[in-house]
Amino acid sequence: MAVGIFDSGLGGLTVLDAVHERLPDLPLVYLGDNAHAPYGVRDADDVYDLTTKAVDRLFQAGCDLVILACNTASAAALRRMQESWVPADKRVLGVFVPLIEALTERQWGDNSPPREVAVKHVALFATPATVSSRAFQRELAFRAIGVDVEAQACGGVVDAIEEGDMILAEALVRSHVDALSRKMPEPEAAILGCTHYPLMQDTFQDALGPNVAVYSQANLVAESLADYLIRHPKMVGPGEVSKFLTTGDPKRVSSRATQFLRRQITFEAA
Ligand code: DGL
Questions:
Q1: Is the CB of 130 under 6 A from ligand 1?
Q2: Whether residue 54 has its Cβ less than 6 Å from ligand 1
Q3: How much is the pTM?
Q4: Which residues catalyse the reaction (predicted)?
């Protein structure tokens, strides 16, 4: 019984933590492709190749269901993987849809035509690759009409977080929020469209001000996974042990992960 959680690096740990809290008995195998992070500056083919390799490793580790806890991989590779790569007895799910359903006040699987929703001005903060894919706007357009989305590609933030340089990460977040505010002065909602960004959530909220509702994915994805497993209990694979795998240096990655989650995390080589 194990579910796989994949991210280019440490960001998916924010999702892992929320899933663990929601489903404490579910074994989770985490894989961070730290050797190749950040993905946000790579092209779609490159992200596809790296993501399929990593997901295959999670299948080998006994996971039949893998969550791409990485918006960049979900935006640039998921659809292609689902159409032509995922074996019939496995599932790979992304992180976009739960977030957009929350923003558009929809229940899981509500496929009714797009309609007007309460929020009209949404700021999207994401990696350059996610922004240029326009996957968020595409998924939103299936569900809502009349929502103006202004996207800000937050170059450099993931690198700074992966390096553990939180002072630089904070300065970059503030300058990206500034740039966004010049394009959209009064968003009602802001989406943190990268799983690394919840580690900087307080800075985003502080820079955006108290009137902006900041949506981050971890709890929404955990809730949606719990719901999915009730409907598809067989998708919990045969793996029984929780573990943390990395393509990077396990010692270095463990120390950063322990710093971020404020509990001991020990990675092993993928
Ligand atoms: N944390 C990932 C995301 O949600 C990827 C960041 C990156 O590797 O650039 O987009």
A1: yes
A2: no
A3: 0.90
A4: 70 (proton donor/acceptor), 194 (proton donor/acceptor)
* β-bridge partners, 268: 245
Domains, the chain = 2-94+218-269 (3.40.50.1860), 97-215 (3.40.50.1860)
Helix (H) or strand (E) holding 228: helix 218-231
Residues 6+ apart with CB under 8 A from 200: 157, 161, 166, 169, 170, 173
Residues 6 or more apart whose Cβ sits within 8 Å of residue 23? 222, 225, 226, 229
CB 225 near ligand 1, within 6 Å: no
- 36 CA distance to ligand 1 centroid (A)? 11
How far apart CA 165 and CA 4 sit, in angstroms, is 28
Whole-number Å distance between alpha carbons of 47 and 116: 34
pLDDT tens for residues 13-57?
A: 999 999 999 999 999 999 999 999 999 999 999 999 999 999 999
CB 192 within 8 A of CB 136: no
Q: Has 70 been annotated as catalytic? A: yes
Least confident piece of the model among 177-181, 186-190, 260-264:
260-264
Residues in the chain, total: 270
Known binding positions for substrate: 7-8, 39-40, 71-72, 195-196
Respond yes or no: is residue 154 known to be catalytic: no
Cα distances (Å, whole numbers) of residue 100 to 20, 139, 190, 196, 221: 22, 7, 12, 18, 11
| Catalytic residue, candidates 194, 212, 236, 265 | 194
Nearest alpha carbon to residue 39 among 123, 130, 125: 130
